[in-house]
Amino acid sequence: MKRLHLRVTALSPLAIRSDHAPQGVKTTHYVPGMTLSGALAASHRMLRPEQEEEFAALFLQERISFPYLYPASFQHPRFQKYQSPIMPVPKTAQSCKRFSGFPLLEDEEKDEEYHGVRDSLLDWGIFAMLNNEASSIRELLTPLRSHVTCPYINEKTGKGCNHPMDHFSGFYRRNQAGQRKQAEVKTRLQTHTGINREWGTAQEGVLYNREVIDETMQFWGELWLPAELERSFKQFLNEASTEDVIRLGTGRTRGLGAVSIQAEEAPTWEPEPFKRKLTLFNEAVQKRTQEAGIQQRAPFYFAITLHSPAILCDPFLCYLKTITPRALAERTGLPAHQFQCIYQSTGVQRITGWYEVWGTPRTTEYAIEMGSVFLFASSAPLDEELIQALATLEQTGIGKRRNEGFGRVCISDPFHLEADC
Ligand SMILES: [Zn+2]
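Above: query sequence and zinc ion SMILES. Below: predicted holo structure tokens.
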């Protein structure tokens, strides 16, 4: 498998249909993989209608995984230029309710205040383990106390912030020094006139609003494809960008959705950093379990964080609301009894859409939301077999429709150990 980093620039405003808003006024702040693959398939039809074999290889045989595109615009010039991955903020992230966000860097103007972001996964994990051991209420609440109020202390006045902590969401990028910044999404409302169906002219008295993402916004995503398709895909993408035929999202007949896409080869995947992040995460959990005095400790803990929605079904084809040990066992080839889910922070979203290729609506499906987090215990210690199984899971994803970017996961995301407040 080859991995390409896609850099997408909006040349005109974008409107991406939100499944959460049936009225269609709101736009989502990311581009689903199926929207991207549909847009590229339509461009291919336009540019190379005679090349049916290439069309089938790129869009019909499900060999390419078209990624979700995340917003990648930053005020900070270094973060804007930097090409490291963009990731959705996990559901367990928290920040100050009043001054929410990653802290300012040294070279940033200090006219605004951000009190930093921390993660609550380990707190909740320890809470769940203590609960299993029927601990006293006082013991139970200890791990959760750290995220009741904002611990920020103003350097000049020496005064604490003490505002309540709140849920924090969005997309972020990490630089080589480990500093993090949240991607910005600039949107505005566009007003349109309704069209009279009979006359095809503006309908008197009908005006409506649409939220659109501003032109010049950047997006980022990682595409997976077999090595033998890399050349033809890159050539086609280049041609489509140069000819300015790629249109993403809705309102394409009204001039919305023009984008250019550049693809660069991603750095090669290294086993050592992967192993290190698994070990670091496990050590952090082990330390916390020891501190909390938990008796029954598993030899190995790992987290699964969803970087895109995941569609999972049980053997009876019912949608799963969680990653079950059984689903994990099926993907890793390891026994289900080896895994136990300690804690999870998840949500479910409805997935609708349109087959761009066939021009027909898709059946509605239900997915576990992007950013969902699962903490698992493994009854077997970390050995080569487990490393390999988890590495394959991260590199190939989980669940259905992975060719449309669903089911991307990150194992033991370092985000869960980081805190700047
Ligand atoms: Zn604060």
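The longest helix spans residues 271-291.
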